[in-house]
Amino acid sequence: MEKIIAVIQARMGSTRLPGKVLADIEGKPLIWHIYNRLQKISTISEIIISTTSKVQDKPLIEFAKKEKISYYAGSEDDLIDRIYKTGEKFDCDIIVKINADCPLIDINMIENGIKKFLTSKRKPDLVTNCVEETFPEGMQYAIFNFKTLENLWNTLNEGFWREFFYRFMIENQNKYFIINLKNNKDLSKLRWTVDYEEDLEFVKIIYNKLFSKNEFFGMNEILNLLDKNPEFKKINDKYSAKIGINDFNNLKEKFRGQ
Predict the structure, then answer these.
(1) 85-116 pLDDT, tens per residue?
(2) Within a domain: residue 241?
(3) Which range marks the domain in which residue 111 is found?
(4) Residue 69 maps to which CATH number?
(5) Is the pTM of this model over 0.85?
(6) pLDDT score recorded for residue 257
(7) CA distance 49 to 51
(8) How far apart are alpha carbons 37 and 35 in whole angstroms?
(9) I need a labelling partner for 137 at 20 to 30 A (CA). Which of 200, 201, 207, 212 fits?
(10) 24-25/28-29 β-pairing
(11) 53 near 59, Cβ under 8 Å?
């Protein structure tokens, strides 16, 4: 039986909204809600917070200790090193990676991704829903074959690609076996991640309306709520859902122009 771990990639030093991962949502830190959701997935044997060894991330480690959540603290920028060493420390075969700014992540999607990974006749390097974006921003996940991560850890030399190793795989998908899961409707213009105060306000109101009824509410419940309350979409609609990928593309152009 292959060991599957979930890794929540987290740090306090967000440039746009510092400390967001410990922001209060319904009486609990934002990152707790991600942990709570992932606990519901029976195929995941352990959930780890993967943070940095910088002083500013000590509150995250203290939170993990208090909540008895496993953690690993490593490099801030050498992300392949941090994620690989997290997997190595916890002796896994498969890593499910979630970013700590995605408190609305739908566990049914992740369960579906894990099922695709385990039942594929050919063992995937990566199962994700990001190669072709069709889900709201904030619904993204990546399920890695740990041996593939080990190979990347050994062979990626440029600092830029060691930070963006996940994008490296997508940009070189002819070299990898990647399964991409698509939604039947393109919802990629919807912004459900947390980068700004308005994003946090949006997430808080979603939790306020749905959490007490079902703490594991998913994408469809959110869509139904937004259909009934379209004004909620306006809270953070001044920010594009494509900010993350646009930032990456700009950094990539600078890197290639060096």
Answers:
(1) 999 999 999 999 999 999 999 999 999 999 99
(2) no
(3) 4-188
(4) 3.90.550.10
(5) yes
(6) 82
(7) 6
(8) 5
(9) 212
(10) antiparallel
(11) no
